[in-house]
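Extended Data, panel c. Modelled sequence:
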Amino acid sequence: MPKKRIDTESKEFLFQTLKKLKNDDFVDFWESLFSSAEIKDVSRRLMAAKLLHQDLTYEEVEEIMGMGSNTVNKIHFKTKGSPVLRGLFRKK
């Protein structure tokens, strides 16, 4: 059985670590800790969020990304109010 609060502590540690990374270290960090499948999953969710931000329909995102409607719906509701993502996706 895991230590109490280990998930919260681990999440906090992850965010603290990400803040410390320099540009050159960022790719190495991801490739060292995550499998190519895990990186693919995260990158596909980010792309789906971007497509939703561009006002594509759920159906269009599902078709482009090969995702189910539940996944697209979850991504939409978890990201729609994020000012950080809006800033990242803003057209330059």
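Residues 49 and 75 are 6 Å apart (CA to CA). This feature is highlighted in the accompanying rendering.
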